[in-house]
């Protein structure tokens, strides 16, 4: 009910997938005993990691957040106008939801009311951002879903009778390889009615120097963000990585169209991880793969949409053509 107290306009739906601790331990055990060592990037985002990511978004080198904000600021109004009746705004991986305010304000200006359904695995991030939004916008209802994307989409579809816009912003699509991205967008597509839309933020291919600086900034914030995985292993699993056994490395792979982030062993060393009963040997220069960030050309965006049975309704760029925002309809 618009205008009711913030508490009355808030609902949190949690799914049982909150077995994070055990998950982390087994992922580390698996990832560090493979021939090519790796750690899944989803574990970067504990509370310290989420704070560091917020700091990344404000870095001069990390243009993505500002470019997306610029496009949203210019286009949120025309996006909202395309919805004839009060709509639901779903958001995948909402995080702190700062950029979403532009969309929320545009929908509220258009219809006076909006239900916002953020889907995120971090219950605490959801609760914090919901509190701020509910106090600020009396016409807003928040139904937060604390779950993995898949389950969240299922709930969003089941719980939303009217038209909806599903936002997947921040170039979060870049953490998937191209096939996984298409497969995931097909799942999103399956949650859409004909009048529903998807709003996708995608970072574009660009010269190496710009990309590598964006993922290896002068202040070393991104290096701290990546290292946070080792900090977590030390703290939560009795690891002995310590502060400077590994170096952060971000490389643009033009052929693959992706930034690859690794932690590289500074010397030959054996690292103990007590809680796993594990001793891991590293050669000097041996890398742990942490994260990929895929970039798209306009043609690759077309291919992605086609593979997901989506049709681009509108595409916008920032003034420097670094980043693209795409509004898609089910094809
Ligand atoms: C959150 C996946 C969009 O790939 O740009 C930023 C993560 N990693 N700096 C990105 C990230 C290092 C980010 N995404």
Walk me through the structure.
By secondary structure, the chain is α/β, with parallel strands linked by helices. The protein has ten helices and 13 strands. α2 (47-57) packs antiparallel against α9. The longest helix is centred in the N-terminal third of the chain and has 19 residues, at 63-81. The two termini are 34 Å apart. The mean pLDDT is 94. It binds N,N,N-trimethyl-histidine (AVJ). Residues 56, 64, 170-172, 174-175, 215, 222, 225, 291, 293 line the site of N,N,N-trimethyl-histidine.
What keyword list fits this structure?
binds N,N,N-trimethyl-histidine, three-stranded antiparallel β-sheet, eight-stranded mixed β-sheet, alpha/beta, 26% strand, 331 residues
Summarize the structure.
The protein has 331 residues and is of the alpha/beta class. Helices cover 38% and strands 26% of the residues. The protein has an 8-stranded mixed sheet, sandwiched between helices. A 3-stranded antiparallel sheet has the order 7-8-11.
Task: Please render the helix and strand layout as text.
Layout: E1 10-14, H1 20-31, H2 47-57, H3 63-81, E2 88-92, H4 100-111, E3 114-120, H5 123-136, E4 140-146, H6 149-159, E5 164-168, H7 178-190, E6 197-203, H8 208-214, H9 221-237, E7 246-253, E8 258-265, E9 269-273, E10 278-282, E11 287-294, H10 298-307, E12 310-317, E13 323-330
Parallel strand pairs: 1-4, 2-3, 2-5, 3-4, 5-6
Antiparallel strand pairs: 6-13, 7-8, 8-11, 9-10, 12-13
Helix pairs in contact: 2-9, 3-4
The structure holds N,N,N-trimethyl-histidine.
């Amino acid at each position: 009910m618009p205008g009711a107290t913030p508490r009355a306009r808030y609902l949190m739906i949690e799914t049982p997938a909150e077995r994070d601790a055990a998950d982390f331990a087994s992922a580390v055990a698996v990832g560090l005993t493979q021939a090519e060592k790796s750690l899944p990037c989803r574990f970067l985002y504990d509370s310290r990691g989420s704070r560091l990511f917020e700091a990344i978004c404000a870095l001069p080198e990390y243009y993505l957040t500002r470019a997306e904000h610029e496009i949203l600021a210019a286009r949120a109004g025309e996006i909202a106008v395309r919805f004839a009746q009060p709509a639901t705004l779903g958001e995948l991986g909402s995080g702190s939801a700062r950029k979403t305010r532009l969309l929320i304000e545009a929908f509220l200006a258009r219809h006076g009311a909006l239900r916002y359904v953020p889907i995120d695995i971090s219950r605490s991030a959801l609760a914090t951002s919901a509190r701020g939004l509910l106090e600020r916008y009396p016409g807003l209802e928040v139904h937060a879903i604390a779950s993995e994307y898949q389950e969240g989409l299922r709930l969003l579809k089941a719980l939303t009778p009217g038209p909806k816009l599903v936002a997947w912003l921040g170039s979060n699509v870049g953490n998937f390889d191209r096939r996984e991205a298409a497969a995931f967008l097909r799942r999103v597509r399956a949650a859409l009615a004909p009048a529903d839309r998807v709003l996708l933020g995608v970072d574009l291919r660009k010269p190496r120097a710009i990309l590598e600086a964006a993922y290896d900034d002068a202040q070393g914030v991104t290096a701290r963000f990546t290292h946070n995985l080792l900090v977590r292993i030390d703290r939560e699993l009795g690891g002995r990585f310590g502060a400077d056994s590994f170096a952060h490395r971000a490389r643009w792979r033009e052929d693959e169209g992706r930034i690859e982030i690794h932690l590289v062993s500074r010397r030959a060393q054996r690292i103990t991880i007590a809680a796993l009963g594990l001793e891991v040997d590293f050669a000097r220069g041996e890398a742990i793969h942490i994260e990929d960030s895929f970039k798209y050309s306009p043609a690759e965006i077309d291919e992605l949409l086609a593979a997901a049975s989506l049709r681009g309704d509108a595409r916008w760029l920032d003034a420097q053509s670094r980043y693209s925002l795409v509004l898609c309809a089910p094809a």
